[in-house]
Amino acid sequence: MPSRTFSSNEDPLDVVLRPPPDETPQARAERLHKEAEAKKVSDAIDESIRQEKVAWKKNKTLLRLLLLGQSESGKSTTLKNFQLTFAPQAWVAERASWRAVVQLNLVRSINLILDSLAQELAANPPGRPRTATSPFAAPVSLPSSSTSNTPPDSPDSATGPSFAGEPGPPLALTDKHALLRLRLAPLRQVENELRRLLGAASSEAGAADGGAMRATPFDEPYTAGAQAGGTMRSRSSADRDLCLRSNRSWKDALNARRVSMGSGPGSRAVSPGPGSREGPERDDATEVIAGCRDDMRALWEDGVVREMLARQRMRLADSASFFLDDIDRIATRTYEPSDDDVVRARLRTVGVQEYSLKFESTVGVDRSIAREWIIYDVGGARSARAAWVPFFEDANALLFLAPINCFDESLEEDRHVNRLEDSFILWKSVVGSKLLRKCIIVLFLNKYDLLSKKLKAGVAIKKHLSSYGDRENTAPVFAKYLHSKFREQHKEYSPEPRSFYGYVTCVVDTKATASTLSSVRDGLLQQHLQKADLVA
Ligand SMILES: Nc1nc2c(ncn2[C@@H]2O[C@H](COP(=O)(O)OP(=O)(O)OP(=O)(O)O)[C@@H](O)[C@H]2O)c(=O)[nH]1
Ligand SMILES: [Mg+2]
Predict the structure, then answer these.
(1) Binding residues for GTP, per the UniProt record (predicted)?
(2) 94-152 pLDDT, tens per residue?
């Protein structure tokens, strides 16, 4: 084979690759075609590398956080704390739009009490000789705290004699109660009006969660729940909650209505929308609520009504007493929601809601990675859990909320299942999920304040959780006990070793939660970055 000779000023590579001098036109065409094909492949590889780099860069700056946990564990309340802590300007701009939601929370609670009163009045009309035919006539002492929104917790009242339907002396209802019921009747219309105003975004719980029940997001549809030990508190009203259909829809509905009504003199505008600089505007609902203020207060503070609620074991929403105790402040024509009002306002989440959290201040944090997080807030009812799975793949971090006050309560969607047991089952499936194996997981053992209140009222943990044994019946000891149980499961079921971050929280305490969230944020970012460096 003849060897080529190189002159000193020739590029050797060029010489090698140069087409042979005797190349035929056909050979040339074939060579060019091959070269073009090779270039196409090379360009495709370059493009894919470029796209991967872009995606990775994006991923690095965007942390996707999932909020998981059973219904009423405090996920949406935690999300509000994220917004209040890290995006305070956006929070203030939106705060006023919550007025109708707070009003609806208040009116809804009053109407639920009126429902119970109507039932009781029908069974035992005032003026008639007292009989023990009341459906809820069981002898029960009143709660010592006027702010309690749960039935009286005399030691072990949950398993004691105070069940609805047992005979007992009838309640001392008078004409005053019948009159209060009549005078507060317009609040039905107000509730409907507020629901309409919120774009029909609020609806009865249960109706919205019509899917198949799954104990965990990975399960087959759920059939029967295990009966936990002890008698559990049941929810007397499965439809006491209000549903949030989408993260923006009710806010958009408020704004649209406001715009369509104009703001000129004589217009019947509703509460100001996000960003409004005007004061609260007058509307029919607000007028009626303000007009009913004294009667609402009289109803809520009435001793016989409190006794009735206790006998019926009626459990209002956790935030109900917060609003009912503040009727004088909320039921006014000039009412504007406070930060606490917004944090406490209850709207049950339906489906999976995506929020973009833009950090307004990134002091002390690497600016390139902390500007925006995507937070997914999910509906926690069993029927809603299958909808979580598609969001697992992209999630970098997960905040799991387990309410620790509910060791003696049953699930609203299945009264045979203890709520704490449900949280454990869910936790186990989440930490053991292969899909979530790369996720950083943070646990909030939430509702510490309600746990404390319940234990102080004398409810015995071991009656409902025999494994607790003779440990102290106090909130700090029980919280520590649960912390270690959740940690053990985390260690045992995680597909690969990972750190455990567990906090005992009360997410309606915005100040304490702000500092917890700051350390959660720092921890998450640090972990996220470490992973990024490993992959880069
Ligand atoms: N007292 C007290 N109430 C709390 C706490 N956390 C949440 N709540 C209240 O519990 C209720 C339920 O909280 P949410 O944040 O709406 O619960 P969720 O997990 O989003 O529930 P779903 O949307 O149904 O899945 C609300 O009325 C909150 O104000 C807490 O730590 N203490
Ligand atoms: Mg929610």
Answers:
(1) 318-319, 446-449
(2) 999 899 999 999 999 999 999 999 999 998 888 766 555 444 444 333 333 333 333 33
Give the C-alpha separation, 372 to 392, whole Å.
19
| Stronger pLDDT, 99 or 254, i.e. the higher one | 99
**Ligand 1 lined by 379 (C-beta under 6 Å):** yes
> Which residues, 6 or more positions from 499, have their beta carbon under 8 angstroms from its beta carbon?
440, 527
Decide: 73 in ligand 1 pocket, CB within 6 A.
yes
- How far is Cα of residue 215 from the mean position of the Cα atoms in its chain? 17
Residues 6+ apart with CB under 8 A from 360: 86, 87, 88, 89, 90
The encoded tokens of residue 165 equal 């339907």
| Residues belonging to the chain | 536
Neighbouring CB atoms inside 10 A of 64's CB total: 18
Q: What is the mean pLDDT of residues 153-164?
A: 35
Give the environment of ion ligand 2: residues with CB less than 5 A.
75-76, 349
Q: Which of the listed residues 83, 244, 319, 503 should we mutate to test ligand 1's pocket, taking the one with most ligand atoms within 8 A of CB?
A: 319
Of the candidates 406, 343, 358, 408, the residue with the CA atom closest to the CA atom of residue 380 = 406
Domains and CATH numbers, the chain: 62-95+349-534 (3.40.50.300), 97-126+172-198+283-348 (1.10.400.10)
Question: Does any ligand 1 atom lie closer than 6 A to the CB of residue 433?
Answer: no
Verify whether ligand 1 is closer than 6 Å to residue 405 (CB atom): no
The label of the residue with tokens 């600089």 reads 277
Q: Which two tokens stand for residue 407?
A: 């060791």
Best residue among 67, 68, 76 to mutate for probing ligand 1, ranked by most atoms within 8 Å of CB: 76
Please tell me the residue having the least CA distance from ligand 1 atom 29: 344
Separation between Cα atoms, residue 259 and residue 433, nearest integer Å: 47
DSSP alpha helix (H) spans, 270-353: 284-291, 293-301, 303-311, 320-324, 327-330, 339-344
Q: How far apart are the first and last CA of the chain?
A: 48
Percent of the chain with pLDDT over 90: 53
Listed range (9-23, 75-89, 196-210, 284-298) with the worst mean pLDDT: 196-210
Degrees to nearest 5, angle at CA 251 with 250 and 255: 115
> What is the ipTM metric for this complex?
0.99
Tens-digit pLDDT profile for residues 322-343 = 999 999 999 999 999 999 999 9
Instruction: Starting from the CA of residue 74, give the closest ligand.
Output: 1
Q: How far apart are CA 289 and CA 297, in angstroms?
A: 11
Please tell me if the CB atom of residue 209 comes closer than 6 angstroms to any atom of ligand 1: no
Helix, strand and coil content of the chain, in percent to the nearest 5, comes to 45, 10, 45
Extract the tokens encoding 465.
């959780």
Could you read off the pLDDT of 3-54 as tens digits, one per residue? 455 555 667 667 667 777 888 899 889 989 998 999 999 899 888 877 766 6
Rounded to the nearest whole angstrom, what is the distance from the C-alpha of residue 379 to the centroid of ligand 2?
6
